[in-house]
Amino acid sequence: MPTPRTLLTLTEVEAIARNAHAGQQDKAGRPYAEHLAAVADGVRVRGGSDDQIAAAWLHDAVEDDALSADWLAAAALPQPVKDMVLAVTKRDGEDVAAYTRRILATPGALLIKESDLAHNADPTRLAVLDPATRTRLTAKYAQVRALLGLGESPTEQPDPANTTKG
Predict the structure, then answer these.
(1) Cα end-to-end span (Å), the chain
(2) Running DSSP on this structure, what letter comes out for residue 36?
(3) pTM of the model
(4) Which residue among 40, 55, 136, 140 is buried most deeply as judged by most CB within 10 Å?
């Protein structure tokens, strides 16, 4: 009988995510890992579980090709973590309504996307972008929030990392 694999710890997941996104920058030219840390922290302060925090660290890994879907499938992670990561992963050609329905249908995924949107839409972060990009992203984030039933974007404290992902 095979021995069960030890699941990755949050510290190991964080290290994997940081390594996978090493060298990547957000739209404002900041290290991409700052966005991952902000989303994971946002999930934590919103009362998220360890599984949700792990998924937050990995939330853009497959979408950004930092890690493959095969890697995720084989990773020593609980299935709910894998499900949440895949739920928030945008697919080529997928419309926003289908994307948001998948998030809503996946237990735990909404909190990850809420934290991601909150960080992405932080006015301090958006302020460093050119006006056209800022306007486009603000509308995009508002549409996704509305489809997810999250209402208006909350006023947030300025983010010291000042990173932007869209």
Answers:
(1) 46
(2) H
(3) 0.88
(4) 55
The tokens of 54 are what? 């792990």
For residue 22, give Cα distances in angstroms to 54, 66, 156. 18, 9, 27
Residue tagged 């994997």 (tokens): 16
Locate 15 and state its tokens.
């290290």
pLDDT digits (tens, 9 = 90+) for 107-150: 999 999 999 999 999 998 899 999 999 999 999 999 999 999 99
Among all chains, which residue has been given the structure tokens 């839409």? 121
Q: What are phi and psi of 25, to 5 degrees?
A: -125, 155
**Those residues with Cβ within 8 angstroms of residue 125's Cβ, 6 or more apart along the chain or in another chain:** 28, 119, 159, 162, 163, 164
Distance CA 166, CA 139 (A): 11
